[in-house]
Design brief:
By secondary structure, the protein is mostly beta strands. It has helices at about 1-15, 145-150, 250-260, and strands at about 20-25, 30-35, 45, 45-55, 55-60, 70, 75, 80-90, 95-105, 115, 120-125, 125, 130-135, 165-175, 175-185, 190, 200, 205, 215, 220-225, 265-269. The N and C termini lie far apart (about 65 Å).
Length: about 270
């Protein structure tokens, strides 16, 4: 009878996915108490702040002079900077991740846009990196967002439609050139060097170094954009070649995509 009860207990164990609250011998009987336990995963609020730098200096907007210099020794200032960040994700060592499905349009002249507090809470845990998309991927890059439409954020339909990823504008001086306007606008890349014309996704996933974070309560971190990196890594930008307009210029759009990943860093608070 004792052996029979042991076999019966083993059969019960093999029939269910369970966690054990107790397992003990009592007067030659094997008594197994089982229950299904769902562990509650705590979730916490995130606050993301955006900073804008030129090298190690804080970006100053709308200066009367041209205080910044790119790797091509061209002096410039910045009169407009708007960009879109989407799908911030938190990655673990085992390859799993959690994504905040949302976006933030940041305007460097509007400090209220420098803070993003998404409604989605993030599960507690140890995360090895924080990543995010610059712009929208193909699925999300549809002209359906009322706030972005109201902000005149659209990308022309003849160039692929959807939305801008960035508008970075100002004036520059170069050898023999003074007070020349530039408009570094980024979005879908139209390739009209092939037939038929193709439209290429031009967003990228930023994966900044040193972004490991432990989430065990409400938390915050900062996303830093270094303007100079748009113009120097790996391609040295020449404002005389790519000033304005560059939206329809396939080569310029692809260079921005390749220069983009080094633009961003993350500071954990």
């Amino acid at each position: 009878m004792k052996n029979f009860r042991k076999l019966l207990s083993l059969a019960v164990l093999s029939a269910f996915i369970i966690s054990f609250s107790a397992c003990e011998d009592d007067d030659d009987d094997v008594r197994v108490e089982t229950r299904i336990v769902e562990k509650e995963v705590k979730k916490y609020n995130a606050t993301i702040k955006f900073n804008h730098l030129v090298g190690s200096d804080t970006l100053q907007m709308n200066t009367t002079d041209k205080p910044y210099q790119n790797a091509n020794n061209q002096s410039f200032n910045v009169s407009r900077l708007r960009y879109l960040i989407s799908d911030i994700s938190f990655h673990k060592a085992d390859g799993s991740c959690f994504t905040i499905d949302g976006y933030q349009l940041v305007d460097a002249t509007q400090p209220s846009t420098f803070t993003y507090a998404p409604d989605t809470q993030v599960p507690e845990g140890e995360y090895t990196s924080i990543r995010f998309k610059f712009g929208f991927d193909r699925i999300d890059n549809q002209s359906i967002y009322a706030d972005l439409n109201a902000a005149n954020w659209g990308w022309p339909g003849m160039l692929g439609g959807g939305y801008h990823y960035m508008q970075l504008e100002g004036m520059y001086d170069s050898s023999g050139v003074k007070d020349k306007f530039f408009a570094t606008h980024m979005g879908t890349a139209r390739n009209n060097t092939v037939t038929p014309t193709t439209f290429e996704d031009n967003h990228f996933v930023a994966n900044p170094e040193n972004s490991a974070i432990t989430i065990d309560g409400d938390f915050s971190f900062e996303i830093n954009m270094d303007i100079l990196q748009w113009y120097e890594n790996p391609y040295t930008w020449d404002f005389n070649v790519y000033n304005a307009p560059i939206m329809p210029v396939y080569d310029a759009q692809r260079k921005l995509n390749l220069n983009g990943p080094t633009v961003f860093s993350v500071s954990i608070n």
